[in-house]
Amino acid sequence: MKKTIALVTGGFTGESVISLKSAAVVARLLDPERYEVFTIFVYPGRWYYETEGQQYPVNLNDFSLDLPSGKVTFDGVFNCLHGSPGEDGKLAGYFELIDMPYTTCDVLTSAITMNKAFTKAIVEPIPELYVAKSVRLQRGDAQAAARVLAELRLPVFVKPNSGGSSIGMSKVKEEAALEEALLRAFQEDSEVLVEEFVSGREFSIGMYKAKGQVHVLPATEIVSSKEFFDFEAKYVAGVTEEITPGRMSTEEVARVKRIAAAVYEALGCRGAVRMDYFLRHEDGKCFFIELNTVPGQTETSLISQQVRAAGMEVRDFYTLLIEAMWE
């Protein structure tokens, strides 16, 4: 008997456009022999299912739909909602309250990993993993730029502490550009994280748990024509070269797999997540950048590339993620 799956997309932030693209791919690839899929759009004050131009609101008392054909209830949720509320724990909290299984990390892990500074503090003790020196700033701090210049060396990355898709992020190489970069980041979040630049090769690696075991996918090497892997580099074709599997030595592959699995466990992750990292040029040390708990699932997304590089079909990968909800 088919399971009924709610595919959740939309969102409250600028990442909603990517969420919609991810959901369209997932909807097309989910196994129709196993699952009946309803795409649920979540926007501020509007949760609905749409078919034939008609919108049907979600009953939030039990997360159901009242359709002309009858009431629809769900066996589980495939979360494809990047940013808030799908990635910061809000949606997870709602699903926990109504006892609805879902594919992504729980409330605590989602909330913590959305905060880059908190995440770094948790992963910093992991053997063989390093974090760049950083400063966390609050909106309204008149001394923010002075603190950065006093505590860090340029160049630095300025980023919203809880943002995603590199929205509001800047690389600052000169003092004169710092104030503008801080202003841009504070437009996205009330907290900003400023990190010293690490010169290295950039990679991203996916991990997931299925049948009680953490699996680490082949890493993707990011070779961008931009200063860094910003929104344009991530989502505009031709700006970035993505090499999967990434060019790493046998030792580096083994070391990064150990680190990635340890990060997954230390943060209490569930489902599929993606860790971004640098291998520093001078010594090959692995520097943590951030963890994405609802990674993109577009046709060209890094996770999809890595799944195929591991010899799997993306459809089978999605089946593993869904079935893991009931393990």
TrEMBL record:
Residues given in the record as Mg(2+) 2 binding sites: 290, 292
**Catalysed reactions, semicolon-separated:** 2 D-alanine + ATP = D-alanyl-D-alanine + ADP + phosphate + H(+)
Positions of the ATP-grasp domain: 116-323
Q: In which pathway does it act?
A: Cell wall biogenesis; peptidoglycan biosynthesis
- GO cellular-component terms in the record? cytoplasm
State one molecular function term (GO). D-alanine-D-alanine ligase activity
Q: Which residues bind Mg(2+) 1?
A: 276, 290
Does the record's keyword annotation contain Metal-binding?
Answer: yes
Give the main EC class.
Answer: ligase
Q: Which NCBIfam families match?
A: D_ala_D_alaTIGR (TIGR01205), PRK01372.1 (NF002378), PRK01966.1-3 (NF002527)
The protein's role, per its UniProt record: Cell wall formation.
Protein name (record):
D-alanine--D-alanine ligase
